[in-house]
Each structure stands twice: as structure tokens, then as C-alpha cells.
Amino acid sequence: MSATPSPLHRLGALAAARRRIVLIAGAVLFLIAAAFGAGAQAALSLSRFEAPGSESDTAEQILHQEFKDGSPNYVLLVTAKKGGTVDDPEVAAEGRKLTEELAGRDGVDTAGSYWSRGPNSALVSEDRSQALVVAWLRGTATEVRTELADITPAFTQDTELLTVRPGGQDEVFRQVGEETRRDFLRAEAIVIPAVFLLLLWVYRRWSAAGLTLGVGFFSVLATLAMVRGVTAFTEVSTFAANLALVLGLGLGLDYSLFVISRFREEMAATPGGSDADRHAAVVRTVASAGRTVLFSGFTVAASLAALFLFPFPFLQSFAWAGIAVVVSAAFGAVVLLPAALAAVGRRTLRPGRTEPAVETGRWYRNTLKIMRRPLLYGLPVLIALLALGAPFLGAQFGLPDERVLPASASSRIVQEEIRTGFAAEETDALQIVTTGEAEQDGSDYAERLSQLPGVFQVDTGSGTYRDGGRAGATADPGRFQAGEHTLLTVVPDQEALAGDMAQFVERVRAVDAPYTEVRVGGFPAAMTDFRGELLDRLPYVVALILLVTFVILFLMTGSLLIPAKATIANILSLSVMFGVLVWVFQDGNLSGLLGFTASGRMEPSIPILMFCIAYGLSMDYEVFIMARVKEAYDRTGDNTSAVAEGIQRSAPLVTSAAAILALTFATYATGGVVFLKELGIGMALAVLVDALLIRTLLVPAFMGLAGKANWWAPAPLRRLHARYGISEAPAAEKPRQDLIEAT
Fold first, then answer.
1. Pick from 8, 408, 612, 628: most CB atoms within 10 A?
2. In this structure, are residues 340 and 19 in contact, taking their beta carbons and an 8 Å threshold?
3. Can you tell me the distance from the alpha carbon of 405 to that of 223, in angstroms, rounded to the nearest whole number?
4. How far is CA 526 from CA 135, 234, 454, 465, in A?
5. What is the pLDDT of residues 426-485, one digit of tens each?
6. What are the two backbone dihedrals, phi and then psi, of residue 242, each rounded to the nearest 5 degrees?
């Protein structure tokens, strides 16, 4: 044994010897985290899909600063009653009054309507029974949606002449935020008792289940507290709270399962039952399992930290939450849990049972069988995974709309009525902001724009243009001029909105303009720029995740083939997740059962987020298994028996952890927001496929084929690993008794 105990030996000895102090400090931290984390929801922010510094963002800033206006983000759908039309004098008078009332509300900078912008506007339905009032509210998404919480109830009206119902992009996503908070509470109510029952089934002991769930609670509350602290200097999305619940609980339980499982092994190897024996078992557990937990946590944190490469607060929020989850879960499992095990350790053991010999275990026997005939078992699994992932080849990415909400949501109903009853949607218009005097007649530019496929009309200060000709005068020409800047509004028709909006935006941007500078903004352009920036940076994010996790596994195993195998296995696991996402959420299969409406496309940021989470969790399980395999290989030098022993010792734990984590994710399938359904179902499936097929069938088949080559590395890398690599201490290594007594 090394003359100098490792830092983890010292930490385990300290936790065992000073368990009361550690547990009291942990209880104080728990209470502080609960008090501070309770206010996290109020401190979190709502987000918009926008790319800071992009062309659309610059156009929007000019609109705000020079025109004192912006792209409409709120709408009132006004419907005439008793078979009337919006042109009836009484209805028109009420419509003008409604417009003035909305314009006078706090937070509303501008408001216009069919009655104020004239008959050439696109704000009237084709049967003229409905018309729109559109408004722009200045401020952040949180500020605007806070105002809408008061405005929407006030303008939800039903009178003798008309009905008024609110909608618009910010109202849709305000309701998404409300639904998300309800889903959060619903998930808590479902997952906590269900997880506790599952832990009882795994452990067969109340004390072990209670300690594990306690670490999970600590991780969730500490994560919320840390995330609230982060809001002091940057914006954090409200969706981060959902990740804090599901991932905090999941990782806290995963790591606790691993630590308690190792503690049971160490206790089974202890001949006596004295306090010193229990303390020694705690020290060995922290020195071995604690190292694996830290490795695992680093892989998950590294995968989620890659989201910082995206310049979007929405995605960066999950990086902050993910790092906080790992820190809190690892601290709970490596510091607080060992102190608790030192206090009540024997009560966590299975009643009346001893740990069976490794060679008699079911997983050991099955692994040997697979490694003897790797192609027979591995090829069918590989074919099945490729088949399940195949639908991802047909993935279509697009802009989110009101269909992310349940069919009963009021803003979704409004937007669907607008889609079916109006020829175009002015709230989704492109705002073209030009700078400088036109080199020629600007009307020619407007005419050419109006001839583009998908354009319903173009509104300018000189008139409204349709199909290459002037359709009428503009009711408010001053709205289109501000100093050296000119505004043109390109209103898309419903066919363009239902198709590829990014392609529509690019067609508009490609038209030659007679101005010094032209910038195209508006919601479709903002979403196009957001998606473009997202996809441009995606290769760097993926490369960083692959590189960091490869290096981590190399440092743990000293092998080049094992990290390469893990990378391929993870990609196969993720391909299944993405294939099912396309088959279910894009193509609409099972939409009736799951209660959502397919739009024929997927919003791209959620799958990217899922990639980062799922890849980290896949490496989490890889680390758990390979740590035990490497430990056995270092002791025996036999690849086959080492793989079988490592899987026998880790597979029951991994499958139990996967079942619990899948359950926590799957609770979001009961929610109303499609984004959370995607996250819940996709992640639950990825975790189960990874644990049940990849790690226990495909990995042993691959390692059986590779044999001794599994552990190969060129001489320079072997020397590098010998100096910097970190492996688990052998189970037989005993901590120094004088160290336990000294601490």
C-alpha cells in the first residue's frame, strides 16, 4: 500500500470519524438550500428564441430605437357576434375603443388594428367576421409576460357585440411557462413516492432507501439554491428548474446507489462488526466508489458545460443547472452519505443475506456467454439499434408555434383560429429596415418583394403591394419612416408559414434593394438566425464533448480502444433517442396516446440539449462499469473474467439506477408542453436503451471480440497514463488504522 494515503482515503476517514459534525453541517446546508432555493422559481427568467448580434436582432433594435416600435408580440382576436362583420358601425366603434384601451395599458408601447390601419391591412379574416388588434410590448421576455399576466384577463371579454380573446407569440410562451410550472409540481407529486417505492424494492431496507432519497433531495435543493445565485449575474431560464428536479434527483440517487452498493461489498468482506470495521469499510468505499462518482460527475458536467459555447441564455441555463446538479449530487454522495453510513451502516445491509460470490452471479454467467459468441449476441442488437435510429434521417427542423401547448390552451385556440380564418398573419411579418436614401424608386423594391412565392402583401409608407402591383394607400404612412431609416413589412401567407420559413426568409433577403443597408427582422427571421447560429456552433459543441469524455475514459482505463468503443456505443444509444423523437413527435405517431399535436418539424434547441444530457449520462454508466472492469483487470490481467466480474458488480446497480432515472424523466410525459414531453420520453428511452442493451449486451460483445486489444495504448500514452491516470484502488487494499484513529 502507498505510504501516503490518497485525498479520498483522507476524506473517507474524516467522514467516518467526524460523522456527527459532518451530518450536522449537512443538515444546516440542507436547510439553507431549502430556504434559498425556495425563491429560485421567482428569480428565473423566461426566454425568447433570438440570436444576439444577428441581422434580425439589429433590425429589431433599430425598430425600437428609431421607430419606437417593434415586431408585434401580442394580439387580440375580435369576433363579431350575431352574424355581423367587423365593418358594422357598432363593432367598428368597439374595435377602435379596444385598440385605444390596449395602447393605454402600462407596458404597451404601440398598438394598431384593422380599424386603425385601414382596409388594406392583413388584420381581417377572409369572411370579415374577425379582426385583429396587434401590439408591441417593450422589455425582456420576463417583463413582457409579467405584464401580460395582468393584461390578458382584462382583455378576455364577451359582450353583446363581440368576443375578445388574447394570443400572440409572447402570450403563447407565457402560457408555456405557466404549464411548465404546473408540470414541475405534477412531476414532483408523481416521482417522489414512486422513486421511494422503487428504492425499497432495490434495497429491501428503509434506511438505505431513505438515505438515498435524502441525497437526491439535497441535490435538488442545493441545485436550485446555486441556480438562484447564478441569477445575480446572468439570466437563467425557468426550464432550468425542471432539469434541477429530474437530473438532481436522478444523479443523487445514481451516485448514492453506487456508494451504498460498494459499502455493502466492503461490509460483506469485513469479518467483524465493530465500529472500526464499519469505519474501514466507509474509507475503502470513498476511496474507490468515490473516485468513480467524481469521474462520472465530471463527464456529465463536461457534456452540459459544452452548452456555454452557444450564445443563448436559454441553453446556457442548462449548463449552469447541470454543473450545479453534479456538484451537489457528488458532494452528497461522497461526503454526506459516507458520514451517514458510518453512523447507521449495518442497517443498510440486506436483512439475513450475504453478498453472493461473483462467479455465481447471473450477470457474470450471461456475460461469459455473450463474450464466447459475441457476433451472435452483438449483431442483432446492433441491427435493432440502427433500425430504431433510422427515422432520424428524415428529421425536419423548424420554428415552434402554438402547438407546443395543449389543445385546450386559450392562446393556442386563438392562433389556430387565425391560421384557419385569415389569409395571412401580420404578427409573423418580416420587418425590413433600410438605411439611407433609395438609389431608385423604392416602390420597385416593394413590388419585387410582393411577387415572391409565399408573400401575401408588402406594406410601405407609399402603399400596400400585392402580386407586383399597388393594392391601395397606407392609412398611417408616418409609421414607415424614421430619419434615414425606412420600414417595409412583408406579410407571409399561410402556406409560407406552414412551410420552410427559413427558406422564405432567405428568399426575401436575397432580393436586391436600392438602399445602402438592408436588415430583415421579425419573428421568422429571428428564429431563422437563432437556428442558423445553433447549427453553426453545433459541430464545435459535439467535438468538445467527444474529446473531453474520450480523455476522461483514457485517464481512467489507460486504453484507446475503450474510449473509442464508448463513443460509438453512445452515438448508437443517442440515435435511438433521436429516431424515436422523429417518429413520435415530428411524424405524430402515438400523438393521440401522448396528447399532443404534431407539427411535422422539431424545434432544434431541445434535441441539442437532450444530446448533451444523454451523452453525459451514457458516459456516467460507462464509467460505472469500466471502473469495476478496470479494477478487476488490474488485479487479474484476464480480459474475459475482468469484464464478466465488472458487469456482475455494476450491472444490477446500473439497471436499477437507469430504471429510477428513466422514471423521473418519464413523469414529464404526463405534462402539457411538447418540449417537456420530448425531453421526458426521449431521455427515459435513451437511459433504458443504454443500460439494458448497450452496456450489458453490446459492450461485452465488443470487448469479447477485441480481447487484449481493449487495453492497448502506444508507449507514450502508456507513460502519460502511468503518470496522470486515475484508477480505482483494489478492493483488497485496507486503509491504515492509525489514519482512522488520528482523524
1. 628
2. yes
3. 28
4. 18, 22, 18, 24
5. 888 999 999 887 666 668 899 999 999 999 999 988 888 998 888 888 877 888 888 889
6. -65, -40
